[in-house]
Amino acid sequence: MNRNVRGLRWGTPVAAASAAVVATMVLNPTPGASGAPQSTAKAKAPTAKNVIFINGDGMGAAAREAARLHLAGLQGRLTMDRLPVSGQLTTTPDDPKAVVTDSAAAATAWATGEKTYNGAISVDTHGNPLPTLGAQAKAAGKATGLVTTAQVTDASPAAFFANTADRGKQDEIARQYLDVSKPDVILGGGEDWWLPAGTAGAFPDKPAEDTSEGSRGTKGNLIAKARRSGYRYVTNAKDLDKATGGKVLGLFGNEEMFQQRPEGQGDVYAPAVDLATMTSKALKTLDKNKKGFFLMVEEEGVDEFAHSNNGTRVLQSMQQLEKAVAVARAYQATHPDTLLVVTGDHETGGLAVEENDTGDESGTGVSAEDGPFTIHGSDRTFTIDWTTSGHSSVDVPVTAAGPLASRFTGKHANTYVHDVLSQVLAPRR
Got the DSSP string for 56-113? Predict the structure, then answer.
């Protein structure tokens, strides 16, 4: 249990209480258990002030099931699945050329409440910018932040804090963070997009592990600009730990915080700062705002490694996501005015959990079966099968806790996330 709450640093008494809450949830996994009669909970329900929104990029129901078996066992449950409210989200984009969404269109649906085409970052189908929840939360006086193991300017976090017709313009997205939406906390990868081509930063151009990486920005030295704007810039776990108060920009890799390569050929999931630690630091920083905060947290590895049909790395990524969810859940449990939501933008890989049956191989090459994988606390194992190296259009689960969480019961379009979150984040008129 200590490993799940190890990253908590928003105050020793709170951290201890939070650890106790998480331990209680593990020992008493009764669905919907709250420790109080339903009528009492309703009578005392607090108004939502904070939102923690967690995206397992590419995480469908089968990825959650594979992680449940591998991490919690046959009868166990993940922290993300212990949240008292659950539902489903559909993910179809508004794209004349596609019926399956990408991360940009899916995150735009969350951040703006409008469907759009694949590749669009919070613009409508005509390319017009749309109001985003991140910018609206800032306008309402709330602190804002984003945490991801992808580039901080990648599609999912970008949709909450920027507008562009092309998700690939990550240097423009970084510029908008500094000039327009101004998140207080920005933690993840992607230093390459913050520096001009030929100007290496903390991470060298053309590193041995991936010689295609290197500084490529076209908007000047945005790291220097961030410093002038009051951000403390950090590039490793030690300096992140020392950063106190104010605004923080932490970039911990050239691009994503892992190496997505073919299985056994340099694929590495070993972020310089793990997702739970970044989440804990963001919460400690944002928590100081009396008007509340909005924090977007993302684990990118689930999607990236599923694109390569790499079951081992997907399960590693799910484990790190689960630890980050435990940090967020512990915070929410001691801050009842916080809405916590966990979902995925889409499913990747057409992942299926199967029995170990060598006669049931249904794919070759990249879609070959993976496994066997261990089941926690058991001598049994399971196989992961794949149907695609792309995305699929299956529904994604959503689980939630805190004020307004009950709104997520049932099946909804992904734009519904905006309908609920905007009740907390949009400025009051």
Answer: ETT--HHHHHHHHHHHH-TT---HHHHSSEEEEEE----BTTBSS--HHHHHHHHHHS
pLDDT tens sequence across 353-411: 999 987 776 666 667 889 999 999 999 999 999 999 999 999 999 999 999 999 999 99
Residue 381: inside a domain: yes
Residue 269 lies in a domain: yes
Is 21 part of a structural domain of the chain? Answer: no
For the residues 277-283, what does the mean pLDDT come to? 98
Instruction: Count the Cβ atoms, other than its own, within 10 Å of residue 358.
Output: 7
- Residue 316 is part of which domain span? 47-425
Distance CA 166, CA 123 (A): 9
Establish if 294 belongs to a structural domain.
yes
Q: Please state the domain count of the chain.
A: 1
**What are the strands, taking DSSP E only, across 215-374?**
231-234, 247-251, 293-299, 338-343, 347-348, 352-354, 370-374
Q: What is the CATH number of the domain that holds 146?
A: 3.40.720.10
Query: Which residue numbers are catalytic?
Result: 103
